[in-house]
């Protein structure tokens, strides 16, 4: 193929300022817009073709087409130059594929290919013609992220220039150097060139004054960018420290933490959860989370909640340990979502095995206590009924019979004490169970009252010897020391003796009234009145307290319960003696009144 021919006679563009007529040199141009690149290459290639020299363009299809259109617009005969071998075009990617090996340009293949192409053009156009070459192969390598190959190719072009004469123009889009880490390779690329053409925003400036202002503006931007980079690096360092602290916190947390991916496989787990279950990281991470659940249906329900976008709190589950044991846990979890897609879980796992064991033990203790109380309550009911009968007879019995009954009473006393001890032992095992204490309180109080009654029956006051009024004064005198209530008594000192059963009942009512009624009404003072009428004897006890609560008073009136077993028994005894007992309460205090009829011979 002949490369000789006459120079192009078509008009060319005005001479440019940026190395468009260098006969030798390796120049790099940076551009922001394709249009600016096409315009610059049109001047560079057009100047060579217009002067009768040769040109070779190794570019992308889009840039080759754009350059051809621009050259034709300048009046150049592009097709004619190609036919004469004056203008050679090639695809950048195809040329790269012919000398690239293992990601780097092979020097021998490059020299053979590109040196051969330049030699052929020189033979065709004449040994004295200038060759203008434009190449985008380095830009393709840079765009692929292969900076080392791009720089190596620039070096090979420089070595080729030692044996071949040509003027080379390379071009890179300036936007591909938009990161700080590209600064060093960018300077290396510039260092491999004899000249650098800046982007069009600077190259378009027409006067020195404009260029100086442009340079000053660039310096200001550089300083601002440097400051911004320093602040960004500090922010990145701070963020890395915080991320490291967070990672350390989660890794060494005392509570289990794990992440599970959208495929249900464990992505990460901390040391606490591995220690809890006994697995190594390799035995746990990467496995499906459901493998470690005792009940896979529990996991399935947990997963359904998560993938519906629910946040989960205190979700109960059982996890299987490596040794086969089971740990009961509660799970707090939610999901990380990005652009509507589920990414992974954020899951906290708390071991509640010991807590569940204690709760079960408490439930069993509560059940046992209920059984004991039910049995004890039945025994108390039976013995209380028996005591009510014994209390009316014990003072009228002969010594031998009294001793026999005393032994029975002593046995009963032991039963009540055993019941009290059982309740206390069971309640000590559940100190924070107010419901159990409330349940056992009334039964224990009844036991205490019966023990008090039994003690009295075993060691009764000698009313037979001193009479009702003397025994009553003796009890009232010690009341203040025992309870803190100041008690006064209004009773005739010379009152005739009453039947033994009447005196005993009245004395017991006085004891129970002051002990269980007026002491609990918040009173500070009380008055006892004993008066004998023609056919009856009256006992009345009043106080200045706040009064018994209406619900307790109503309960006592209806069932006899609520104000002590002893007083309840005495009410029954009063009724057996055809008398009456009345309790009234109000804002001014509480009044207990007993009226017992006397037989004609006692009146």
Description:
The chain is α/β, with parallel strands linked by helices and 603 residues long. The chain has four domains: 25-204, Rossmann fold, CATH 3.40.50.300; 256-351, Beta-Lactamase (2-Layer Sandwich), CATH 3.30.450.20; 356-458; 463-597, Heat Shock Protein 90. The protein has helices spanning 34-50, 61-73, 78-83, 92-99, 107-125, 137-143, 147-160, 183-191, 200-203, 208-251, 271-277, 281-284, 296-307, 353-393, 399-428, 434-458, 463-466, 468-477, 479-483, 500-518, 550-559, 565-576, and strands spanning 25-31, 54-59, 87-91, 100-101, 104-105, 131-135, 167-173, 195-197, 256-260, 266-269, 312-320, 326-338, 341-351, 486-490, 525-532, 536-543, 580-586, 589-597. The strands form four sheets. The chain has a six-stranded parallel beta sheet with strand order 3-2-6-7-1-8, with helices on both faces. It has a five-stranded antiparallel beta sheet with strand order 10-9-13-12-11, with helices on both faces. Helix 20 (500-518) links the parallel strand 14 and strand 15 (525-532). The longest helix has 44 residues, at 208-251. The N and C termini lie far apart (163 Å). Residues 1-18 and 394-398 have low confidence and may be disordered.
């Amino acid at each position: 193929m002949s490369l000789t021919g006459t120079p192009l006679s078509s008009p060319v563009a005005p001479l440019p300022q940026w190395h468009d007529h260098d006969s030798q040199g390796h120049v790099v141009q940076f551009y922001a817009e394709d249009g600016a690149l096409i315009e610059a290459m049109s001047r560079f290639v057009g100047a060579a073709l217009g002067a009768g020299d040769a040109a070779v363009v190794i570019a992308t299809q889009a840039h080759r087409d754009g350059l051809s259109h621009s050259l034709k617009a300048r009046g150049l005969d592009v097709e004619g130059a190609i036919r004469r071998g004056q203008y050679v075009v090639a695809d950048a990617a195809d040329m790269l594929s012919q000398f690239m090996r293992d990601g780097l340009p092979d020097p021998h293949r490059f020299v053979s290919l590109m040196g051969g192409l330049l030699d052929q053009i020189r033979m065709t156009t004449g040994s004295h013609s200038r060759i203008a070459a434009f190449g985008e192969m380095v830009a393709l390598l840079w765009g692929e992220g292969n900076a080392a190959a791009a720089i190596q190719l620039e070096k090979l072009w420089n070595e080729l220039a030692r044996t071949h004469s040509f003027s080379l123009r390379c071009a890179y889009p300036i936007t591909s150097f938009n990161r700080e880490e590209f600064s060093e390779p960018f300077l290396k690329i510039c260092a491999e060139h004899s000249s650098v053409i800046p982007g069009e925003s600077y190259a378009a400036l027409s006067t020195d004054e404009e260029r100086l202002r442009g340079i000053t503006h660039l310096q200001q931007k550089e300083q601002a960018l440097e400051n911004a980079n320093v602040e960004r690096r500090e922010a990145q360092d701070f963020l890395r420290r915080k991320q490291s602290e967070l990672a350390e916190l989660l890794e060494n947390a005392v509570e289990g933490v794990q992440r599970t991916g959208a495929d249900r496989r464990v992505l990460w787990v901390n040391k606490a959860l591995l220690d809890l279950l006994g697995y190594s990281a390799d035995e746990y991470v990467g496995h499906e989370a459901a493998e470690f659940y005792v009940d896979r249906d529990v996991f399935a329900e947990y997963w359904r909640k998560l993938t519906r976008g629910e946040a989960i709190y205190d979700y109960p589950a059982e996890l299987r340990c490596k040794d086969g044991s089971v740990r009961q846990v509660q799970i707090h979890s939610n999901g990380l979502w990005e652009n509507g897609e589920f990414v992974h879980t954020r899951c906290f796992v708390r071991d509640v095995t010991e807590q569940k064991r204690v709760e079960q033990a408490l439930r069993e203790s509560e059940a046992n206590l209920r059984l004991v109380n039910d049995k004890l309550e039945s025994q108390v009911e039976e013995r209380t009924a028996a005591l009510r009968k014994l209390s009316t007879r014990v003072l009228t019995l002969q010594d031998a019979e009294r001793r026999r009954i005393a032994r029975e009473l002593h046995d009963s006393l032991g039963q009540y004490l055993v019941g009290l001890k059982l309740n206390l032992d069971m309640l000590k095992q559940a100190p924070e169970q107010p419901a159990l204490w409330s349940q056992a309180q009334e039964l224990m109080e009844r036991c205490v009252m019966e023990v008090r009654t039994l003690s009295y029956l075993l060691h009764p006051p000698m009313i037979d010897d001193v009479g009702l009024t003397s025994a009553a004064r003796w009890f009232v005198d010690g009341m203040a020391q025992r309870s803190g209530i100041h008690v006064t008594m209004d009773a005739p000192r010379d009152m005739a003796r009453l039947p033994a059963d009447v005196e005993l009942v009245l004395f017991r009512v006085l004891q129970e009234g002051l002990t269980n009624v007026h002491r609990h009404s918040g009173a500070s003072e009380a008055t006892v009145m004993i008066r004998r009428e023609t056919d009856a004897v009256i006992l009345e006890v009043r106080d200045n307290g706040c009064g018994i609560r209406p619900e307790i008073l109503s309960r006592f009136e209806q069932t006899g319960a609520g104000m002590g077993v002893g007083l309840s028994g005495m009410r029954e005894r009063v009724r057996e003696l055809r008398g009456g007992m009345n309790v009234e309460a109000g804002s001014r205090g509480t009044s207990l009144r007993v009226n017992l009829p006397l037989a004609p011979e006692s009146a």
